[in-house]
Amino acid sequence: MDQFIYLDYQATTPCDPRVVETMLPYFTDYFANSHSDHSFGQRANQAVETAREQVASLLGVLAQEIIFTSGATEANNIAIQGAVKYRLKQNHTARQVITVCTEHKSVLEVVNALAEWGIDVVTLPVNREGLVDHEALKEALQTPTLLVSIMAANNETSIIQPVNELAKIAHEYGAIFHCDMAQIIGKIDHLSLENIDLASLSGHKIYAPKGVGVLYVRRKPRVRLSPLFYGGYQERGIRSGTLPVPLIVGMGKACEIMCQEGKEEAQCLIYYKKLLIDGLKHNIVNIKINGSIKKSLPGSVNLHFPGVQALDILNRIPHLCLSTGSACTVSSLMPSYVLLAMGLSKEEALQSFRLSFGRMTTQAQVREVIDALSCAYHDIMAGR
């Protein structure tokens, strides 16, 4: 893999070697069920609780508010379905849920499925920068609403929504606020969950293993959820099932590293992003950035190459690991629904792709990416 340059950190990250090292003993030496009463099991349980503290520390919340899941998709499902189901059981009169057209599919699909329960779904638009209009949210909230779900940072454009402000608005109208935070955790140093009721995280976005995630559930004022499935009452009965101790330990270690190194890492990624954009703009004068630059993640950018299909560029640079859109969509031949929602034409969307740096990226790689993308673009435009 040495000849490849990985530029798809929004899709997934490699496990940090320190995370892997911390996990290994829990596969072989300390493998007991963390809910067993014997001392062997309690050692595993202590490792889980340490990880819970590490996650909570990164988020600035209480350890008791952390529920371990298999990933952000499951956390999104538990949060949205669980909150709505509980409120309906309490005979809440509202029958509306609000989300945004650029959400991850694991939010959009589950929200749309709520129609089977008689729930009306309102999907808010975004502007050309990918941002939600506060007034549009207020207008939608004029109808009694059970829950609002808006992601913190988009998985294709990296656009950051002012979720705490949006959450305040939702609370003014009595709605619960859920936030998909899979893309943003550890990437900015001023993140706050002050007004967030429910938040979803994914381990493999922060250099932890795949197969583990977190659902944050606010305790004061308390948010209650109905479980989606039942079992042994693990994780306060919200997410039953034997805990994958090694994966949870890895998640905790990854959060600990983010706490210690995240701010410095973000500054490095900001530098790489500026280096990339400046270099490409110098070489390709008509290149465009999709969405807001100021209100986006440090190491991610969505690029539009006018006049050239994104797949044609990518086919010329197979050593660069890039994506035209979300890794969770079915076909890369389809234009991104996120870019279309932001007002791009189908043609413009098909001429765009995302690029994301991460912990293992080097400055030399960024400069090579600039050269490779520039050469590929100009060769195609010249018919070579």
UniProtKB/TrEMBL annotation:
Pfam family of the protein (one): Aminotran_5
Family per UniProt?
A: Belongs to the class-V pyridoxal-phosphate-dependent aminotransferase family. NifS/IscS subfamily.
> What name does the UniProt record give this protein?
Cysteine desulfurase
Q: Known Gene3D superfamilies for this protein?
A: Aspartate Aminotransferase, domain 1, Type I PLP-dependent aspartate aminotransferase-like (Major domain)
The question of whether Transmembrane is a record keyword is answered with: no
Annotated PROSITE patterns: AA_TRANSFER_CLASS_5
Extract the GO molecular function terms from the UniProt entry: cysteine desulfurase activity; iron-sulfur cluster binding; metal ion binding
EC annotation from Swiss-Prot or TrEMBL:
2.8.1.7
Reaction(s) this enzyme catalyzes, per UniProt: (sulfur carrier)-H + L-cysteine = (sulfur carrier)-SH + L-alanine
According to its UniProt entry, the function of this protein is described as: Catalyzes the removal of elemental sulfur atoms from cysteine to produce alanine. Seems to participate in the biosynthesis of the nitrogenase metalloclusters by providing the inorganic sulfur required for the Fe-S core formation.
What's the cofactor? pyridoxal 5'-phosphate
Q: Which UniProt keywords apply?
A: Iron, Iron-sulfur, Metal-binding, Nitrogen fixation, Pyridoxal phosphate, Transferase
Q: Domain Aminotransferase class V spans what residues?
A: 5-368
Instruction: Tell me if Transferase is a UniProt keyword of this record.
Output: yes
